[in-house]
Design brief:
The chain is of the alpha/beta class. The protein has two domains: about 130 residues, Rossmann fold, CATH 3.40.50.1980; about 150 residues, Rossmann fold. It contains 13 helices and eleven strands. The strands form three sheets. It has a five-stranded parallel sheet with strand order 5-4-3-6-7. Strands 9-8-10-11 form a four-stranded parallel sheet. Strands 1-2 form a two-stranded antiparallel ribbon. Helix 2 links the parallel strand 3 and strand 4. It starts with a helix and ends in an 11-residue tail after the last helix.
């Protein structure tokens, strides 16, 4: 009886062992045949515009922007609901001012950024520091950098960003609209010779733009060419040189800031400015500060500048019937073109000189 009991216990042990082996084999086959969904990749590796490899969480649900241009691009792509934080300088569109502020672009608060739990932080090479990017990476936060230098690169950058953020269709639509409007503008300007302009970033000292900046390219798209031929992005220029070159127009970007403004009359009283003919002729073009930001809205600034310096290109040709009526009933004399009749009050409200405005990218 003892021997029979031992044999039964041994038989039970063997059966249990075989069952365990069969169970493990079945589990192994099931795992190899159908991978568990949670094991799928949670990151996408991309190369940003400065050549860094960035691991972007998928999908991107929470975004922090550290540059006004990037904030504008996010809104243009319709992704504003995913924007959980931006900088104190992100003022367009107005809704961007309601987002949680993380400080400035140079020294943002890493604590606030981390508390927002972003999937990705967007930066620009021109406006943000490498130290900020490195600090974010040390916290395990992905940072993607943009660095466009021409209008075409701004379009390409916006489209690439839309793909990374999960909105490729919106990116294609925005890029297509920008290209279409720029194409129409070039047809309208035709073969008109470009106007020679001085783009004024700051007056004392006088700072303008270099020939390799996206602003210089924006001027060219508007039918203008900068008189400053410099490899530096933000060169200082002497009034003597400006007086010698005598630009057709002075171009200012209205920054909508609360800093002190100046009329053309005040500018003319500053030492040396009175000898610049564009001052006495009131050849002043004031355009949106969108020209300072490499974002989709820059096209509007380009169109605005073209209208001011090439008004004839925007005069619609009347049909024969309308032309006959106008000949028989000539309209009353029209006021001069806007660029030659800017009043002191208008300029007092519009021309704003804000140090570093062109760098608020």
């Amino acid at each position: 009886m003892v021997k029979e009991s031992a044999r039964q216990r041994l038989r039970c042990v063997i059966v249990a062992a075989i069952a365990a082996l069969l169970s493990c084999a079945a589990l192994s086959r099931a795992q190899s045949a159908s991978p568990i969904s949670s094991a799928s990749p949670a990151f996408r590796e991309v190369t940003d515009e400065v050549g860094r490899t960035v691991r972007v969480p998928q999908p991107v649900r929470r975004i922090v922007s550290l540059a006004p241009s990037l904030t504008e691009t996010i809104y243009a792509l319709g992704l504003q609901n995913h924007l959980v934080g931006d900088t104190e300088y992100c003022d367009y569109p107005p809704d961007a001012q309601k987002k949680t502020k993380v400080g400035g672009g140079i020294n943002p608060s890493l604590e606030i950024i981390a508390a927002l739990h972003p999937d990705i932080v967007l930066v620009t090479k021109a406006f943000n520091r490498l130290e900020t990017v490195n600090s974010l990476e040390s916290l395990g936060i992905s940072a993607y950098a943009t660095d466009p230098h021409t209008v075409d690169e701004i379009i390409a950058s916006s489209k690439k960003l839309s793909d990374i953020l999960g909105a490729p269709d919106a990116g294609s639509s925005v890029a297509g609209d920008m290209q279409h409007r720029l194409g129409d503008l070039q047809l309208r300007l035709g073969a008109q010779p470009p106007k020679r302009v001085l783009f004024v970033v700051w007056t004392q000292p006088l700072i303008s733009i270099g020939k390799n900046t996206f602003i210089a390219d924006a001027l060219r798209r508007a039918g203008a060419v900068s008189i400053v031929d410099s490899e530096q992005d933000w060169p200082q220029v002497s009034l003597e040189e400006v007086a010698h070159l005598q630009p057709d127009f002075l171009v200012f970007a209205d920054s909508h800031s609360d800093s002190s403004s100046s009329t053309v009359e005040v500018l003319a009283t500053l030492p040396g400015w009175s000898i610049v003919e564009a001052i006495s002729r009131r050849h002043i073009a004031v355009i949106s500060d969108a020209v300072n930001r490499p974002a989709p809205r820059i096209v509007s600034a380009i169109e605005d500048l073209a209208r001011q310096i090439h008004p004839d290109a925007f005069v619609e040709k009347p049909d024969n019937r309308k032309e006959k009526i106008e000949k028989e009933n000539p309209p009353p004399s029209q006021p001069p073109a806007p660029h030659s009749s800017l009043s002191a009050d208008t300029l007092q409200a519009r021309i704003l000189f804000h140090r570093g405005c062109a760098c608020a990218r």
